[in-house]
Structure formats: C-alpha cells, structure tokens
Hints:
Phosphatidylethanolamine-binding Protein; 1 helix
Amino acid sequence: MGLRFAQRTFDAPGGWPAYCPGENVSPPLSWSNVPPGTSSLVLTMYDHITRCETCGKRAPEGRVWGHWGVYNIPAEATNLPEGLPADPVLPDGSMQVVNGFGEAGYGGPCPPAGHVHFYVFTLYALDTRLDLQPESTSVDDLSAALDGHVLEQAELTGTFLGQ
C-alpha cells in the first residue's frame, strides 16, 4: 500500500503517539463477476497483525484491527473510488461503519516503525441488505452481521512497512 493511503499521525488508543506519513485516503478498489442473486455488497479491511514481534500489548500476535467497513454497496457497483469521504452515508446509499480509530469511514495503515502488517480487503456478496446504524456499528459488528448471508467472497491482501 502506498503512503497516500497510510494514516496520518494521531494519538493512538492507550495514549501513545503513532507517527504516520500518510494522507489517510481510501484506495480505489474494483471487482467484477458479482454472483447472481446478490442484493448488496460489503467490504471490510482488517489489519492481520501477524509479524509484529515487538509491539507488545499494543498489538499482540494474532490480533486483528478493523480499518474499514462499507455495507449496502449496490449489487451493480463495480468499484469504490479513491478518496471516499469519511461520512457514514455515501452518495450511492452505501454506509460506512466506525473503524478501529473511532471514526466513520476509512482508517489507513500505521504499523510501528520497521514492522510489516498485512491488510486484508474482503468483498462479500450478500443475499440481503443490512439494517444497521453506521454511527454505532464497528467493523467487527459488521462482520458478525454477515453470518448466514454470504453468497461469495473475494480477498485482496496488501502489506505496509511502518515508517
């Protein structure tokens, strides 16, 4: 993932400063071949913290962090453009949930300096539209709401080296 898509410097949960070189711009994503019977699409982005050996309690081995969740993406959509606004409701009716940083919309990568993290984007084709309140729904809540509704899913993994 490029620096444009990385998080800006912020005060991380737990009181430690996170120094990040980015602009926190959501990346462009595109897809095709949505399965028949799809009512809506969902996108999640998680940081699978699998190689951070010195993060200690800040990011223990095996932990995941919800960076982005978008639901009720129209079934006929073929992409999400770069730079979506950090609004709970997007112009096409898609909804963005609260990320791990406590904000609506995309929250870019910001691993500790020298550590590689894996960011997994998963696109789900659902047999329904979800009835959730984006302002009070986390990425984990969104993932739980998918249970029993996934027709198919696809994944894309990006890596980022902390600066």
